[in-house]
Design brief:
It is a single chain. Helices cover 33% and strands 20% of the residues. By secondary structure, the protein is an alpha/beta fold. It has a domain of 139 residues: Kinesin, CATH 3.40.850. Strands 1-3-4-2-5 form a five-stranded mixed sheet, sandwiched between helices. A two-stranded antiparallel ribbon has the order 6-7. β8 and β9 form a beta hairpin. The termini are far apart. The chain binds adenosine-5'-triphosphate.
Length: 213
């Protein structure tokens, strides 16, 4: 079971760090401006890694991600392969490592896995979710594209059309939570996904009310 963050800077590690027992892992997103607001060791550690373009850091078995707000070439198929079936902590922290640990723990133990993505608005939760789905489906497809990833990720823009809005923190802010359940066959091949929404900001819908004259 993953633990919650806390701990001092000493608990933060790059490669070579945590061992995750059962693959259940939390993922935390940090908005960059937080890094300047505290002298805490955690934030200093995160900041120095961030300046080296190391946006991911482990804190115990939690992955902390800092939004780089620019494209980094670390999400291509080479990285999916690199992190496949590896031991958590052997390589640099990466979001694909989290997907990989969850996927193989599910196959090995035949137990559902859960990844929680948390963070303030604009920290990159939606983007991270997409990277996770990309990796989870790529691992399951073993090299050939079945179109499942495109279908699952394609649902995103449709939901966003109804539930997203521009805010001070994010031009395309999700004004609702999402629970995404990716279903697999026993062989480890993705069968499909279910997306459930919760906490939709219904007050925003008032702006869509039609007033006939
Ligand atoms: N790893 C990343 N690499 C490059 N850009 C990123 C990354 N993560 C997030 N971004 C960018 O940051 C912006 C905000 O990200 P995102 O919409 O995922 O935030 P969020 O946490 O889901 O926000 P909200 O809670 O408001 O919905 C997006 O434009 C996205 O492209």
């Amino acid at each position: 079971m993953a633990t919650n963050g806390g701990g001092g800077g000493g608990g933060l590690v790059g490669a070579g760090g945590p061992k995750d027992d059962d693959g259940r892992t939390y993922l935390l997103q940090i908005y960059p401006r937080l890094a300047g607001q505290s002298s805490d060791g955690i934030l200093n550690n995160l900041r120095s890694r961030f300046y080296k373009k190391e946006i991911y850091t482990y804190a115990g078995s939690i992955l902390i991600a800092i939004n780089p707000f620019k494209f980094l070439p670390i999400y291509n198929p080479k990285y999916v392969k690199m992190y496949e079936n590896h031991q958590l902590g052997k390589l640099e922290p990466h979001i694909f490592a989290i997907a990989d640990v969850a996927y193989y723990a599910m196959l090995r133990k035949k137990v559902n896995q859960c990844i929680v993505i948390s963070g303030e608005s604009g920290s990159g939760k939606t983007q991270s979710t997409n990277f996770l789905i990309h990796c989870l489906t790529a691992l399951s497809q073993k090299g050939y594209a079945s179109g499942v990833e495109r279908t699952i990720l394609g649902a995103g823009p449709v939901l966003e059309a109804f539930g997203n809005a521009k805010t001070a923190h994010n031009n395309n802010s999700s004004r609702f939570g999402k629970f995404i359940q990716v279903n697999y066959l026993e062989s480890g091949v993705v069968r499909g996904a279910v997306v459930e929404k919760y906490l939709l900001e219904k007050s925003r819908l008032g702006g869509l009310t039609f007033h006939p004259h």
